[in-house]
Amino acid sequence: xxxxxxxxxxxxxxxxxxxxxxxxxxxxxxxxxxxxxxxxxxxxxxxxxxxxxxxxxxxxxxxxxxxxxxxxxxxxxxxxxxxxxxxxxxxxxxxxxxxxxxxxxxxxxxxxxxxxxxxxxxxxxxxxxxxxxxxxxxxxxxxxxxxxxxxxxxxxxxxxxxxxxxxxxxxxxxxxxxxxxxxxxxxxxxxxxxxxxxxxxxxxxxxxxxxxxxxxxxxxxxxxxxxxxxxxxxxxxxxxxxxxxxxxxxxxxxxxxxxxxxxxxxxxxxxxxxxxxxxxxxxxxxxxxxxxxxxxxxxxxxxxxxxxxxxxxxxxxxxxxxxxxxxxx
Length: 329
What we know:
The protein is an all-alpha fold and 329 residues long. The chain has helices at residues 21-34, 36-43, 46-79, 82-88, 93-102, 111-123, 128-141, 143-152, 158-181, 198-230, 234-239, 243-257, 264-270, 276-285, 291-301, 303-328.
């Protein structure tokens, strides 16, 4: 035949199928049914019930604010022009940091929502130092958190001012530290899905961030719940009378418990055996550094960023809380 035989691709003798979410769910249901008896015995133990309660409470507290954050993040990424931020924020990075930190007062959400929003700001060309200052300030300065703090400490109105002042100071200091010591290559933002229309791009970006950050939220909540049930309560009483150890202990406890910033004031108020300065450290460190937040930061900005940023933030937030407490009380 003139022209030769037409080229034919390789013939597939087997059906190439990928295992999807439906198959995975069906497999998990089969496994659960097979081990139902032993599983009931394990789930009935007090330590597992406590773990489950802590895990579910962390996730349920965080999910609404995470959804709000990723929605706002997608809206910023798709609908807000890049020139807007150049007009709103000061051009000099040193001045842009405190301006971005102060703008955290307008976001009524917790740290779970501020992470994706900060990522969207970086994508829009905002200097990372300013975006990170916003990330840290929003959970400590927003009106919902300050109102909850006032309600939790009705006899200590200075706690509201102390939390806002220490949170703002820590956010600005970390932003300025990033300006001097941070490296752009440490930040690796995940790619967003693109659509042929703005609304499809918005849906793709929001869905991507929700799945991506939500997975890290679950991992962080599992780690926090595990540590929550392993830390003996008697350890807290042993260090409460030491003014230095008590501040450090509550700061570390805030990292381990990973309580949402809208609810942590009520936990801090219940720790009456500790000083006000120690409880302030709990309130300042928690919204900036905890297990679920570390996992979400790693998922949004990359692990190289998180392993450097989180320890530095812990030290700065602890120092700002200690100094603020020493001045006020």
